[in-house]
Design goal:
The complex is a heterodimer of chains A (282) and B (319). Chain A is an all-alpha fold. Chain A has one domain: Orthogonal Bundle (MetI-like fold). Chain A has twelve helices and no strands. In chain A, α3 packs parallel to α7, α5 crosses α7 and α11 runs antiparallel to α12. Chain B has two domains: 31 residues, no CATH class; 203 residues, MetI-like (MetI-like fold), CATH 1.10.3720. Chain B contains 16 helices and two strands. Chain B is globular and about 80 Å long. Classes of the chains: A mainly alpha (282), B mainly alpha (319). At the A-B interface, α1, α3, α4, α5 and α6 of A face α1, α6, α7, α8 and α9 of B.
Chain lengths: 282, 319
């Protein structure tokens, strides 16, 4: 076989597979988004133009879902950056057993979100949960409390994903040449100055990757929030989408909402991959 | 001056280590709680205040694998005396095993779900890594018009929100009867992992010097032989790391499994949380199931520790 034939045989099946199982379904649902199709009934789909989009974008409930999601993204990503970057700064020194320590700290992000979500329910239980016990709170409601539930879920997400930010920041920190710090020490630069002018700018590219990736993932969050609570105040966009599609069976409408979500995700994805490639070229 | 500085430095190092240890303890509490609940006597799982010290037992694991019903009244004394210890502990809890016509104890719902998880994760991992490795080699060694655009396209499919993809996939699967089948989930997970596998494997293959292949080609190897006999053996570490990552992703996946499966092909992630709220919740048995489900992932994380960074950045950052 010629090189050209091998290249085509090696690459085209994969691309074809992805088109059939990812792009084709999306085109299929684009079609449905202009109809009033309901998958649970036998009625054929009627073309209704942009009505689904129009109604979704003027629906206060949907805007509320987006507001909740934005709040959730900000809290959980900010928390992950603070905890993750903080841990990385603490770990960035010779510590006996550092490799093992780091690996143990990374365990939460490898765990199944289903198990994490389920067991944090046990931890948050108002009467026998260990969270209230350790904080000395008596019968504090977390997951059934409209004011606290979203924060409680975000805390779980922070617990699970701070290690991710830590991992990337550690990589960035350990790549900073120590000669820079030695030079700063000779110049008697104050610690804050060293942090702002050496540490932060050199970790920034990896930190940015972590932030963009986590923002995207937090925006898409479905599993933990869906498992942990079922309040209106914790209804993220993905959960709304799931309910619209698979509980209310408003298939056409849900396809339209899916497209709105998709556009937002694609925008973040484009930025993310651009930064990934820039990092690769370094 | 230098001595003062290094003394300060050493003090600061010690404070940092202390803080790390505090963080470690806090971060590990949830994990400890899952594991300890699995070994608690049922009465100790939900006490006020929470039980920290208890006599560990493995009753929960016996219950995990077996189908049981609540028994009415006290057990038959003869029967109880005859029963092996692992049946006695279940009888002590006020339950009895469900047996089939031949008297064999029936297995619980968990066993089937765990098996499904295993079948689906292993098969989809194999497919994704096999296709991914071959495609990565293609991208790594040959010129392709619009190469970066294709790679961008491949990775962007990974970023699609599962629920968004699941809606049309569900409709399509319904028409071809793939809902609640192993093949249905295997296809979805293969597609989901394929993009990851291409990117990470490309990173690994890019690092293998082309000189070996070129020498082999000069020696009369065909391109295919050079790939199979020269490149693949050198890429084994990369293939193994990629496979472990794909396995963990498929093993943990929740949303697709929740939507696409009901019973026959249901995997453990949607099943484990669904045990809540069916009457009196037995947290010890749920925890036992969770521990067993987390165990492979824990082991793999330790094996994978040097490749984690590469894995979470799709091969872009190497250490």
């Amino acid at each position: 076989m010629s090189d050209l034939a091998i290249r085509n045989w090696f690459i085209i099946p994969t691309i074809a597979f992805l088109i059939v199982f990812n792009i084709f379904p999306l085109l299929y649902s684009l079609g449905f988004s202009f109809t009033d199709y309901r998958a649970a009934s036998n009625r054929p789909a009627n073309f209704i133009g942009l009505e689904n989009y129009q109604e979704l974008l003027t629906d206060d409930g949907i805007w509320n879902n987006f507001t909740i999601t934005a709040k959730y993204v900000i809290i959980s990503v900010a928390g992950q950056v603070i905890v993750g970057f903080g841990l990385a700064l603490l770990l960035n020194r010779p510590i006996p057993g550092k490799g093992l320590l780091t690996t143990i700290l990374l365990l939460p992000m490898m765990m199944s979100a289903a198990v994490v979500g389920l067991f944090w329910q046990l931890l948050y239980n108002p009467s026998w949960g260990i969270v209230n016990y350790l904080l000395g709170l008596e019968r504090m409601e977390w997951l059934s409390n409209p004011d606290a539930a979203l924060y409680a879920i975000a805390i779980t997400d922070i617990w699970m994903w701070s290690p991710f930010v830590m991992l990337l920041c550690l990589a960035g920190l350990s790549a900073i040449p120590s000669s820079l710090y030695e030079a700063a020490a000779i110049d008697r630069a104050p610690p804050w100055f060293v942090f702002r002018r050496i540490t932060l700018p050199l970790v920034a590219p990896l930190l940015l990757i972590a932030i963009i990736f986590r923002t995207m993932e937090a925006f898409k969050t479905f599993d933990i929030a869906f498992i942990m609570a079922s309040l209106d105040e914790t209804e993220l966009v993905s959960i709304r989408l799931y309910k619209l599609a698979f509980q209310e069976w408003q298939t056409g409408r849900s396809c339209a909402l899916a497209y709105i979500v998709l556009l937002a995700v694609l925008a973040i994805t484009t930025i993310y991959i651009k930064y990934l490639n820039r990092l690769k070229e370094r | 001056m230098a001595a003062v500085q290094s003394k300060m430095q050493r003090l600061w190092d010690r404070i940092a280590v202390a803080l790390v240890l505090v963080a470690l303890v806090i971060m590990m509490i949830p994990l400890y709680w899952i594991c300890s609940t699995a070994f608690k006597p049922r009465a100790d799982a939900t006490t006020v205040p929470p039980t920290v010290f208890f006599k560990p037992e493995i009753t929960a694991f016996i219950k995990l694998f077996t189908a049981r019903v609540e028994r009415r009244g006290a057990p038959n004394k003869e029967e109880y005396a005859r029963a092996p210890w692992w049946e006695k502990v279940v009888m002590d809890g006020g339950e009895r095993f469900i047996r089939d016509d031949k008297g064999n104890i029936e297995s619980s719902g968990y066993v089937g779900r765990f098996t499904n998880s295993l079948i689906i994760a292993v098969t989809s991992t194999f497919l994704a890594v096999a296709m991914g490795t071959v495609t990565a080699y293609g991208f790594s060694r040959f010129k392709m018009p619009g190469e970066s655009d294709w790679l961008f396209f491949i990775l962007s499919t990974r970023m699609l929100p599962p629920v968004v993809v699941a809606i049309p996939m569900y409709l399509m699967y319904r028409t071809v009867a793939l809902v609640d089948t192993h093949i249905g989930l295997i296809i979805l997970y293969t597609a989901f992992n394929l993009s990851f596998s291409v990117w990470v494997m490309k990173g690994f293959i890019d690092e293998i010097p082309t000189e070996y292949e070129e020498a082999a080609l000069v020696d009369g190897y065909t391109r295919m032989e050079a790939f199979l006999k020269i490149v693949l053996p050198q890429a084994v570490t990369g293939i193994a790391a990629t496979a472990v990552f794909c396995f963990i992703t498929a093993w943990n996946e929740y949303a697709f499994a929740l939507i696409m499966t009901l019973r026959k092909a249901q995997t453990a992630p949607p099943y484990i949380p669904s045990q809540l709220g069916s009457g009196l919740t037995d947290w010890t048995t749920i925890a036992a199931g969770a521990v067993l489900f987390l165990l492979p992932v824990m082991i793999f994380t330790f094996l994978l520790r040097n490749h984690l960074l590469r894995g979470v950045t799709f091969g872009a950052v190497r250490k």
